[in-house]
Amino acid sequence: MSKHHDLLCEYIKTENLRKHCYAVESAMRFYARQSGEDEDRWAAAGLLHDIDWEIYPDTHPSSAVPILKENGYDDEFIEVILSHAYPERSDVPRKTKFSKYLFACDEITGFILAYSYMKPGGLDDVKPNGVLKKLKDKAFARNVNREDIRNGAEEIGIELSTHIQNIIDAMKGDLRLK
């Protein structure tokens, strides 16, 4: 396992939260590959974006800063982590492509993962049209911010149904999500 994964396991014990982090990691790796960016760096941000959530939910994501600094992550990486919660929980705006993609991958992966649990074939049965329809059901996965999902796709300049398909494709390749 990687140092990133070891750090995740040190701070996050809940399997569902780990799965969410794996899903964001997979989505970020997908988009880094597609964009010619550093896959390992982008994937690490996806994996660690909620590193402080379980222990410090009230101060997330700022509680991640000392954890990440202590483990050798640079300022740009930390800014990306902080910006994924802007403006509700952070005063660090998303300025870079890296930060915009992390934001765009966060909420949608959680929603798609929750939706996949309802399908007999899991992720293999998830289609963008079904996800778009389920987004209208406010009672389903009510803690997922639908506006963040729409804004995320807009910030990266990808039509929402295409973004959803990309996320599904990225997540299907991750055996940890089966």
**Strand count:** 0
Domain module count: 1
Q: What percentage of the residues does DSSP assign to strands (E)?
A: under 5%
Largest sheet: none
Explained architecture:
This protein is mostly helical and 178 residues long. It is built from 9 helices and no strands. It has one domain (3-172): Orthogonal Bundle (Hypothetical protein af1432), CATH 1.10.3210. The chain has helices spanning 3-11, 15-35, 39-48, 64-70, 75-83, 97-116, 128-135, 146-156, 160-172. The longest helix has 21 residues, at 15-35. It is globular. The mean pLDDT is 97.
Salient structural properties:
single chain; 178 residues; mainly alpha; Hypothetical protein af1432; 61% helix
Question: Layout of helices and strands, plus pairs?
Answer:
Elements: H1 3-11, H2 15-35, H3 39-48, H4 64-70, H5 75-83, H6 97-116, H7 128-135, H8 146-156, H9 160-172
Helix pairs in contact: 2-3, 2-6, 2-9, 4-5, 5-6, 6-8, 6-9, 7-9
Compact overview of the structure:
With 178 residues, the protein is an all-alpha fold.
